[in-house]
Amino acid sequence: MRSIFEIISRVVRNPSTEKDDGSRQFIARCENFRLLLAANNKALEIMAEMSEEARLNSLFGMSHVRSQSLKVSANVRQMIERLCRMNPGKYDALKDVFNIIVMEMEKASDSRSEQSRGPLILTMDEICAESISETGSKMAMLGEIRSELGLKVPEGFSITASAFMFFMENSGLDDEINRLIQITDGNDLNELQTLEASIKHAIDLAAMPIELEDYIEGASSELLKDRHDLRLAIRSSALGEDSGEASFAGQFLSVLGVSPENITDSYRAVVASMYSATAMTYLLNQGLREDELVMCVGCLEMIESVAGGVIYTRDPIGKHKNALIISGVPGHPCSIVDGSALADTWVMDRADRTLRDVFIADKEWQCLSSSNGQINRVKVSENRRSVPSIPYSVIIELAEIALRIEKHFNCPQDIEWVKSSDGQIYILQCRPLSVAESQSNGDSIPKKDEHESLAILSNCIPASHGFACGEVVIVETDDDMFNFPDGAILLTYNAKPRLAALLPRAGALISEHGSATGHLANVAREFGIPAFIGITGAVEKLSGVGVVSVNTATGRIYRGFLSGQNYTRDNLAVLPQNNPVITALRNTLPFIVPLSLTDPDSSKFTPSNCASLHDITRFCHEKAVAEMFRENAMSAANAKRLKGERLLQYWLIDLGGGTSSSVDDKYISLSDIKSNTMKALWIGMTQIPWDGPPPVQAAGLMSVISEAACNPALAPGMSNNMGDRNYFIVSRNYCNLQSRFGFHFCTVEGYAGDDPDENYAFFQFSGGGADKSRRMIRSWLIAGILEKQGFIVDVKEDSLFARIEGVAAEAVEQALAVAGYLLVHTRQIDMVMSDSNAYRNYQVKFAQDIEAVLSSYSIQSSEQGRSL
Amino acid sequence: MKKIRLLLVDDENDFLNAYVRRLVRRNVEVSVACRGRDAVEAVKATDFDVVVLDVMMPGMNGIETLRQIKAVSPALPVIILTGHAKSEALVEGMECGAFDFLLKPVGTEDLYYKMLDAIRSRTLDLV
Fold first, then answer.
1. Average of pLDDT values for A484-509?
2. Strand blocks (E) in A700-798
3. Among the listed ranges A346-350, A366-370, A471-475, A574-578, which one has the minimum average pLDDT value?
4. What is the mean pLDDT of residues A623-628?
5. Nearest CA of chain A to the CA of B123: how many Å?
6. What superfamily would CATH give domain B4-125?
7. How many other β-carbons are positioned within 10 Å of the β-carbon of residue A568?
8. pLDDT of A356-369, one tens digit each?
9. Chain B closest CA to A692's CA: distance in Å?
10. What is the rounded CA–CA span in Å between residue A272 and residue A648?
11. Taking 60 as the threshold, does the pLDDT of residue A88 lie above it?
12. How many CB atoms lie within 10 A of CB B102?
């Protein structure tokens, strides 16, 4: 974009070779003014964006909040710098005010709170529910059921939250990870995978504090004492993981079969898994703060298991009332939770322990520990495939244990269990279970289904409720994940946890393998995505069929798009209204957005009364205009006051070619203006006289009065002439107007020369006297009109930014005439913007007036041989 | 048009390579330094139009580097470009005379125009 400076440079010979006279100083001032205005526009734009993001509950991470805050701060700091250079020494106090505001703002959004350092290691004997802030929920709950209920859990220890902080701070990883997240541009899966690799690399290279290594070695030596061999499961137990609000189910890593000498490598891998692409996507969609992630890690003895599985103490999808669901597989239960196997399932009545339903799966594979502790997939022998993985006596034992755990924690539980080779039941994990409201009226499928003939698959048991239509897209590879279209129905062979990254964008989930007790089913329920998991033949039957409808109420998947369902759902995940990221954003806004410094004539209009960054921008903008046009500057710049039939409240600086030469060095007549852009703007501003303020509705006036009460500078009298501080800077083809009409502030700028590539018009408008909602409605009204005239418009809150570029000079002139008209005629109409009739009337009136303005402009320009 | 002589100071090779490629296409003559100390030496030896400087670097950090560059060449405009999103870096950087503070990632065009602003300001003794 062409700058004032470039326009001046054409007029004034190369400033660097000039001696230091008034014109050179003026050019320097102009350039500072330009930089200040550019920073002002940018700052206001980001402020408006941030306010809108807070209002709309948008999806973003903490790095975005920090980056927005810092960008707005940098632009405000730039404004201060430029103002200080326009009049050295006069405004230096602003710097200290600014520093205080931004440092306070940083504190308000600070991440991991300062806490005194606790133990680096806690052994299972030392862990109980109160340990949760050091061990995370997973380990704390295991310690609790062992100490309080006497249940068997694996021996082991926790590498604590304090250890994690120590590792992060000691190695500088804290800052480095924040930096890597910051410089990642965007949040799509591809970029997040690159980020995952960079963070993993940084964590792998970071030096592990010697003290921490010693503690880990000491704890594992203690475990090894009575054993000839020791293999460990190194499991994530992050703070916040397994909480009721966000389970992070399956998003973090567990490393199985780890020998003691490899604990620290596995520890690094588990810590790095917090920043995996899928975990980060999950985090983003939950509105959780990436800078508050703390990974505590459980190091647990591996149990030689002959069977294992999951228990839900309630039916999570609400289909079975008062039921407890136990699933099991032979060998290690990892194949259930990672969605790769079908499991035996028993639905048991919680009251009388009778079995209501039994499903014995055809178990082709099982997971078994090898002698080195690794887990291998092994084929199940033909004659064992349909044999139940556990006998009835174990089912009863598991139910008793599960109900004791539920009673102790007083909420439904999701429990992972194994049966050891010596017949003992061990609990590997227990966590709160979220239970969905039942979507159907009872357990049975509705009798009448008018779409039954369209069903491709029936009798599907839902893992998460809902209804969705969309194109079926199969996801088998990473490439499939990257190319997955929004709203499609996700079809997959295995319900792998990493697919969680796609769920917020998927209409529904259908998986051939896996079970409703797996991690992915959990995440589907969290995001409210309908899911069928463990549907034999799904991939073969649904691949390539195009659009399908998924209805968990009927348990069917239909060909084509169905409407008129007996219930519908919103497929998009609803973000919690007060998630941690939004809360952090809202905590920073008070330092940025509120504007209390509005009356430049008040004695309180000083740096020390700037309470927010917005106040500082307001102060800088006002003072920069004053500096630009101050008395001695005005004479140096040859600023003149505009004169029509009477003196007007406008001053004008001609950078060259914008006016005809005049003998009068104080005043300039309208007839002397030669700048095509200023003439077009002026025609727009004056062609149709302003009607004055709209007839005030009581509510509108009250809105202004209440706004004014919060803002003493806004008195509701509104005896507003054409503003009191309006400045044109012009050249032959250029015009910049800085104006303040009562309560609102505008910048209009345009260049209209021979080369369309250089031409543009820009209109920025914000503020007003009424409350924010009315001001926003006025901005939308103006935006609609500007868009019809070819402007590209961006409305954020009550601020409007409109531009048109790359067009012929005549189009820029017309655009400026439209901007000029709106500048004058939209004054004070915010007061009546709660009245839909007034809104429509203004829409019609403005459209008619603008047509008249443009036809008057055409007549005047053709009279003058096209060019104004 | 005269080539812009830029000193780009950053310890990340990927970043340097990407920006060098794009800026060279815009008629910018780019010299690079991966450490603060090397940057100060380069400023002593060569007459640059503008410096673009990272904050987090091994050894001497960006703010100290800025101080030393300004001690050697007070009029040379220095733009901070960092992924280190901390207010402290902004406050200190501007106090030490940086022309502006940009946060990564930043488009090549935005950086290029910011460099032009900085060079213009120097011409007018505004830095």
1. 88
2. 726-731, 734-741, 744-751, 760-767, 792-796
3. A574-578
4. 83
5. 6
6. Response regulator (3.40.50.2300)
7. 12
8. 999 999 988 888 87
9. 42
10. 67
11. yes
12. 18
Chain A residue with Cα closest to B107: A185
Compare all CA atoms of chain B with the CA of A186 and give the residue at the minimum distance: B105
3-state class (DSSP) for residue A73: helix
Residues 145-184 of A with CB under 8 A from B: 175-176, 178-180, 182-184
Please determine, for residue A696, whether its predicted confidence score (pLDDT) is greater than 60.
no
pLDDT digits (tens, 9 = 90+) for B35-87: 999 999 999 999 999 999 999 888 899 999 999 999 999 999 999 999 988 89
- Residue B31, token pair as written in the block: 């010299």
Nearest to A197 by CA among A180, A172, A174: A180
**Mind giving me the DSSP string for A299-366?**
EEEPP-EEEEEEEESS-TTS-STTEEEEEEEEB-THHHHTT-S--EEEEEETTT--EEEEE-----EE
pLDDT of residue A16: 41
Where do the domains of chain B lie?
Answer: 4-125
CA angle A169, A170, A171 (to 5 degrees): 95
Structure tokens given for A64? 């975005």
Collapsing DSSP to helix, strand or coil, B90 comes out as: helix
Residue A802 has pLDDT above 80, yes or no: yes
Q: Which of B83, B88, B94 sits opposite A179 (nearest CB)?
A: B83
Q: Among candidates A58, A60, A71, A44, which has minimal Cα distance to A184? A: A60
What mean pLDDT comes out for the span B116-124? 85
Contact B93, B80 (CB under 8 A): yes
Q: Side chain identity at A721, as an amino acid letter?
A: N
- What's the pLDDT at A10? 52
Of A230 and A248, the structure prediction assigns the larger pLDDT to A230
Nearest to A185 among B90, B94, B105 (CB): B105
**CA B77, CA B93: separation in Å to the nearest integer?**
12
Per the CB < 8 Å rule, is A106 touching B87? yes
* Tokens found for residue A258: 């780890």
Say if A81 is an interface residue toward chain B (CB within 8 Å).
yes
